[in-house]
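Lab manual, section 2.4: Encoding a predicted structure.

Procedure: take the sequence of the chain (190 residues), apply the prediction step described in section 2.3, and record the output as structure tokens. A sample record is shown.
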Amino acid sequence: MNYANIKYDDIANGPGVRTSLFVSGCTHACKGCFNEMAWDFKYGEEFTDETIEDILKSVEPEIISSLSPSFIAGLTILGGEPMEKVNQKGILPLIEEFKKRYPNKNLWIYSGYTYDVDLIPGGRAYFEETPKILSLCDVIVDGEFVQELYDITLRFRGSSNQRLIDVKQSAKAGKTVLWEGDATFADHSM
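Recorded output:
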């Protein structure tokens, strides 16, 4: 897997201040995509164990983890498309280690695949890694970007067809539950 960018102190891709990983590779090719250069699976740099440590441990060797300060709310993974097969294999070790080190911080994933169609058993983006990734994910922003439904007033998404799904509550309820934002995301402690 390759990645296009890592943004430290990101405030656009989920609540609070976050570290955001932009993976490379996407087959959706949405018209008006803000990150078209990341459609190419070979774009950017190779995602390695060292990259995981850069995200989890330090921005620079002499600086503490980008995720450890209490003001950092969590990690966001977007792209490209994190739920492409090769990218699921690539992000799972990062997600597992993130949740191990920072159990009280939240994980957001942006995907053009839909949670209740494409990411369920038999869905076109359901692979061996999918259930584990979803079990560790707090919110998934799902659905392809649709230029004709673009709305700058929407919170944490670009087009009105996209949903912010509370993955934990959806698993408990056995149905899709939308995330509305709540106090559980206020505790960012390690």
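Check your result against the sample. The CA atoms of residues 94 and 100 lie 10 Å apart.
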